[in-house]
UniProtKB/TrEMBL annotation, chains A, B, C, D:
Gene Ontology biological process: fatty acid biosynthetic process
GO MF annotation terms: malonyl-CoA decarboxylase activity
Coiled coil spans: none
Designated name of the protein: Decarboxylase
Origin superkingdom: Bacteria
Species of provenance: Polynucleobacter arcticus
Domain Malonyl-CoA decarboxylase C-terminal: from-to ranges: 146-406
Domain called Malonyl-CoA decarboxylase N-terminal: residue spans: 62-143
Xref: Pfam families: MCD, MCD_N
Gene3D superfamilies documented for this protein: Malonyl-CoA decarboxylase, catalytic domain, Malonyl-CoA decarboxylase, oligemerization domain
Length: 434, 434, 434, 434
């Protein structure tokens, strides 16, 4: 009962703090009012976040009639004067609110935190997408790649930074401090983006292996007992074997793309002998797609369904006969790449090439392929038996992919991808055609 | 002739670089395209800037019909979906262009530089105000006070920072390195805002004198031979005697207000004995206003012209008799505060109090008064014979002002000022009434 | 065979490198010759160190006859001229050799490393003590406390520094990174000395707990699950619960003494509420001394063996009856402080007070007591059941000691200790008298 | 009178502070006693320094009889034990005193300062050379080149560092901040040694010009209006045109030698195109030596006075006829290199080659030549009309010298110089022979 009262009072305090900060008084305040909002927000219970953000949605929305008036004037005369008036009435006061909030002593962190909380509400409260739009808009401006600092993370880095790598590595989990140390040895690199305002928070990081050649199998790269190679002359290829975001509140703020390219440039400058930049990536969703009959993609326009591809897919599916035994059953029965028939292997590789080739189509494309191909990488190689872990077998029958970053072609490739085209090597082309 | 061709080619290159950067290819480019725009811009002749910015104005403007459609939908239903659509079509592509430009290696500096150039064109090309609006919008977001670092500038600071103080000090010119050194001694302080991206550029700086009491005269504060006081126990008052912007490209981006308050907080923490924060400020424009008959301000609504004030003004003007001899002539004739009659002194002080009291009114208010009173300071004291320099006598008959920053009242004062009210001390009140 | 040849060649190369570095050519060399010595030394096998250091001993020794001549001149006339000549011929060329060695790129580290290796040879080759004397002499000069930087070590410190704490903690072993993190929380502190030349090497570190009162039991201080107290107002006592050297090559170079005092000063400045600085220390060797009959110390002059002390000791020993059952047997039989009789407890405490009171006597004193009392601390309290670990019961029947650092008395106490006097509290005095 | 008493009291306080610091109590003191010595020393009047240092000389001298005893033991048996005993009694307690003094908060600076003061007393009080010996001994150990950090000094450096360059430049005076800035532009470099303990004190600095070829004339190098060359490809030669000590208290502590070599190595790494490292140096004392008859050097052993050299000298002197008109008179009469006859020019160049060739001989050698040749440089070229300033004409008839640092030969050259040999180019050899 008492608790209920306290909660209600907290919410009302938070709303009042919002009101004050966005008022005239808030315009020139140094930071106390911004601090108030942050402190009051932090006292809210989780189930009060909806009310907090709904308040922002309802009370700080643009005035519809003023918007219409300004739009009509702008249509009549697109002059600077009308343009400016239009901008002023259309921008929601929420954006100014978030900018003022940023003046608080931990302001930037608080805004990021709020978005993290908000994102978890969107499923249930889709109208809060308006607030999310504003948050993402200011965050994209503040976390502009021009403001991010790329730093190498190594064994000299602060423990508080390193523990965040352990926590956030999403692709190949880091098994404690010894595993981490191995990944920071001279033949491994780790780079992260930092924002000047959050110096102990890696925002996104990429792990790199320096190798004599393009790898086809993941195990040696993440083996914490692997011998360290420290002869620089042996480094010919830089392999991005993992890239992870640390900050859910920055979802949708483009960073990975820029990080990979900046790392490639830096490694290129440090090791003139390294000329190849490539990933070794998983194919999440592949076997689910196969199991579902290898649908060529919702929203794929009719004219892209080339008959040849359809035929190749159907032939391959017929080889696998998943309708007689599901993939899970087959794995349970001991299926393993080493035991697969040549036909089965061929069928799986062909299907993977078709699946990845759909990356540029709407909702159904593989997200990893989308990310790298969208960045301007090329689909270079599909590797048989690249990941023999349980997870690897289940999601992609053990297949892994190399995406190739050729710095001279990434912009061109990116544009072709944006126009619906996939850039792939001859080897992959042959698979598609088989 | 050849030069003309080169110039034309440069402009066309610059425009193409804009086009590429804002295109799909530019979306994910790391920095080369942004670098291209910067480099091409720097090759333009000054008289080509108009063409460059006009290109931005014309080609990267929102689509009027799409704006109208979105506005109509929003009026019909202010849902999140319609809100987001509205924002997307209303935001001009220029803003995205500047955000991409920021990825260039010297991107932030280049954007600031472009605005500096643009501001000089606005008089002749008022329609470019639309471009300026966008520039100021992104710069305000990037130079949010939450991102600025306040650093003390002293004799340990890099020479390249210090020379910028010498160059940009706008109120009391710094006469070389020896003068500067005096202003950085233990009884003087200098603080500046820096942006993480521009670490050797002070953006705005304030000079402070630590004194035993509120000063009424400027000379001892800026005397480079003044003896240094290093007994902390003698510091009771912090005097902001000069505040200068270093970066014309950031005009209109609020910083001074936050700087003064942050400095006050820091000095308060460092010297618990300092309880008074005050300025010693000039009154530019005062004698011009007097000479023009002490008009009470264009745009001052009728009901604010209190008869008592009018009477006081007219009485004072009658004492001065400037219609019989202009201010310039009188100064040339040797006028000096020490020689003024008591009546003259009274008249000038009264007029100054009236003039400063008009600060909150529209266009005509005194800019220094507007700045400090708008920040929430109080009009504390008007000092006779505070600045006996030629400039001081000419612009304000030697008068200077103390504005008082009482940290506990600044937000309240700011709000009252925004509502058209001036907060002043009793002493100033008596002058107005006299 | 081949290996033998290689080894011999390596030794000869190392000796030649010594010769060159100490020659005229070596005087002005920048660093290549010094690098040569370091590199050649590192190629030696462990069993060749004796030869290396013996070479230094024999070839770089002062000339005896020149020494005598200079000494005779100095006795005849202690003039500056004779003084200087004396110094020149007496100083062994080894010292200049080590100073030149320090110019190598990793010179300081190499010299420290050499001493670490040398110390392990002294038992078998006592004449190498001459080389050790020179090494310690130059290292004491270089690692003068005036050159050491005290830094707080916390979770922001580089992992490479932190892992050295885990490795070198000698008193209460750190059980991995989670344990370490607990010891770096706000209610714990860790400070270390660093040398500018070895920035990632903590030389010696002390761990501190901030508590509301003087602790008598060690367990809660080193419990990695202990709740963190972060209310500064609760901190009244700073407890040095562990101090460890990281660098064996610096044995005998005074640092701990200065570290503890500097930490106390810094904590005093940071937390004015902390007025008590105290240790919670083990008593290694205590039960061995009891078992051996509580001998009052080889080399204790007769007049210090006060009859009262002897009597107290004998009475206490009689209570314990260790001649009938050894301490080990008793522990094996389940002896535990909680089960001890009041008499037994009294006897052990009395014996401990006598044992610790012997700290200032020659070879036999307890080293921990010697260290703290020699630093000027006071013997403050002996705690029953302070350390119930197996090791604690075995070495000191679970007793622990608080040594008190009263910053105002440490110099006085140090001098009294140097004159053979122990400074203790009344409580300890009563134990001695009981 | 009162002042006299105060002075006496100050001296007595200083002496007592010495006594306490060197006593047992001082052994483990953290820093208060050391601070006491520093503070009391700083209160002394200049004329009391003699008393202060005499106290150190008399009271902290080794015991002569103990020295003799230890020396006799050492002659009888040079064992480690006797060696250590010898070292202990021979080392003067002053050295330990200075080491303890170094623990004071500004200890290192204070010790350097004391030596600066002491050096000015040596002429009048030669027995204080013993104290100076000890000071130099500890300072040489502390300022070992292995501990010095070489930093580039540029326009980003703190003003407090830069003003020290202006103050201490001893060869080509820096005419204010604008002149300094020119010397820090991309085609000029400045490097200095710093000690970690004195981070804002450049100890010694060298100024470098990056040029396309070896310069023969100084003017363009130190012209503050000279155009800046920023094309790296044009840099072929690094010219050390000035080297200056900033710290008189470190006289005799070798640094310049190491600085020049480290700078050469760093420039070599940064600019692979720079292969030549050379000075452009003055010849102070040359015309004085000529005027005095070109004596071949006090202490030059007879067999080095080669008859050919004597003849060359006498012939050249005869050409100049300085006995008929002194050098000063001749300059006053308008003498200028451009007006000199070919014979005169030849005579002066020959005499300069002979004069510089005497650098390796005892007291009379040219100090600049001694420094560079002693460092292992080669006498490369003597330039006619290299320095037309008044000072240049007066001291060396306008001649300047290039000394060449060939990194591969410096150690060899150094050794030859130590053996009395000068390494010179063929061009210089021809001059000697002419």
């Amino acid at each position: 009962m008492l608790e209920k009262l306290t909660k209600a009072r907290n919410l009302s305090k938070a709303n009042n703090a919002i009101k004050r900060l966005i008022s005239e008084r808030g315009e020139s305040n140094a930071l106390s009012m911004a601090d108030d909002v942050v402190n009051n927000y932090r006292k809210l219970a989780k189930d009060q976040y909806v009310s907090f953000f709904t308040y922002l949605f309802e009370k700080l929305h643009p005035q519809a009639d003023a918007v219409l008036k300004a739009a009509q004037d702008f249509v009549a005369d697109s002059s600077a004067r009308n343009y400016i008036q239009l901008q002023k009435v259309v921008e929601s006061p929420r954006q100014e609110f978030f900018r003022r909030l940023n003046r608080a002593s931990q302001g930037t962190a608080a805004v990021v935190e709020m978005r993290r909380d908000l994102l978890q509400l969107l499923d249930k409260k889709p109208e809060l997408a308006a607030v999310d739009f504003d948050l993402r808009h200011v965050l994209s401006s503040w976390f502009n790649p021009g403001f991010l600092k790329m730093h190498r993370v190594d064994w000299k880095s602060p423990a508080e930074v390193l523990e965040k790598l352990i926590k956030h590595e999403a692709v190949h989990a880091i098994d404690g401090w010894d595993d981490l140390r191995r990944r920071l040895q001279p033949d491994r690199r780790c780079f992260a983006f930092f924002h000047p305002q959050l110096p102990s928070e890696p925002l996104i990081f990429v792990e790199v292996a320096l190798l004599p050649e393009i790898p086809t199998v993941i195990t040696p790269l993440v083996d914490k007992k692997a011998e360290v190679v420290d002869q620089v002359s042996q480094f010919k290829v830089a392999v991005f074997y993992s890239i992870s975001n640390c900050e859910p509140g920055l979802r949708g703020v483009s960073m990975g793309n820029f990080l990979i390219k900046r790392v490639a440039e830096q490694l290129h400058a440090e090791f003139p002998g390294i000329k190849t930049f490539v990933t070794l990536s998983p194919i999440p969703g592949f076997m689910d797609w196969v199991a579902a009959g290898g649908n060529l993609g919702a929203g794929v326009p009719a004219d892209r369904l080339k008959p040849a591809l359809k035929l190749a897919r159907d032939t391959a599916l017929a080889v696998l006969k998943l309708e007689s035994q599901s993939w899970t059953e087959r794995l349970a029965g001991g299926w393993h790449p080493d035991l697969a028939s040549e036909k089965e292997k061929e069928a799986l590789l062909t299907l993977a090439s078709i699946y990845l080739g759909l990356a540029s189509t709407g909702r159904d494309g593989n997200p990893v392929a989308k990310f790298h191909l969208g960045n301007g990488a090329k689909l270079h190689l599909i590797n048989w038996a690249g990941d023999l872990s349980r997870k690897g077998l289940r999601q992609s029958a053990g297949l892994m992919v190399n995406y190739l970053y050729d710095l001279g072609s990434v912009e061109d490739n990116h544009e072709r991808f944006a126009n619906g085209e996939i850039v792939y090597s001859r080897a992959v082309g042959r698979l598609m055609a088989s």
